[in-house]
Amino acid sequence: ISIAALWQGTGLVMCLMLAGLRGIDEDIWKAARVDGIPMWKTYLFIVIPMMRPVFITTLVIIAAGIVKVYDLVVAQTSGGPGIASEVPAKYVYDYMFFAQNLGQGFAASTMMLLSVVIVIVPWAYLEFGGKKRV
């Protein structure tokens, strides 16, 4: 499942990164070359900070895909053997529709949402609320 998920997401990540790299102005590359800055320093101190929005966008898209990985698991293993390939989305789906245990399904989906919020709120505070821009 991991190899298939990696194969599925690699193309999108590559397209997003390539679009981000092509969005960097050619004059920046030329200025770094004229100033004699080594290529590794150009990437480390110029390109990577300029690609930060692309990294964040890619991370959010991939994280959303990881939370919703239900289709890949069901298509490849049908959730078996046993609970070896159990993922949160499949757990919620099984309890909601097969076991008809709505309470446990709602509780599991609420915990999925809460786990995402626990990660996003501190990140958003550090990214947007922790520093003042002039």
Please render the helix and strand layout as text.
Elements: H1 2-22, H2 26-34, H3 39-50, H4 52-67, H5 70-77, H6 88-98, H7 102-129
Helix pairs in contact: 1-4, 6-7
Mean pLDDT rating = 84
Alpha-beta content class: mainly alpha
Question: Distance between the terminal alpha carbons, to the nearest Å?
Answer: 47 Å
Give the topology string: H per helix, E per strand. HHHHHHH
Describe what this molecule looks like in 3D.
With 134 residues, the protein is mainly α. The protein has 2 domains: 1-52, no CATH class; 68-134. The protein has helices spanning 2-22, 26-34, 39-50, 52-67, 70-77, 88-98, 102-129. The longest helix is centred in the last third of the chain and has 28 residues, at 102-129. It starts with a helix and ends in a 5-residue tail after the last helix.
List keywords for this structure.
single chain; 134 residues; 2 domains; elongated
Task: Write a concise synopsis of the structure shown.
The chain is built from 7 helices and no strands. The chain is mainly alpha-helical and 134 residues long.
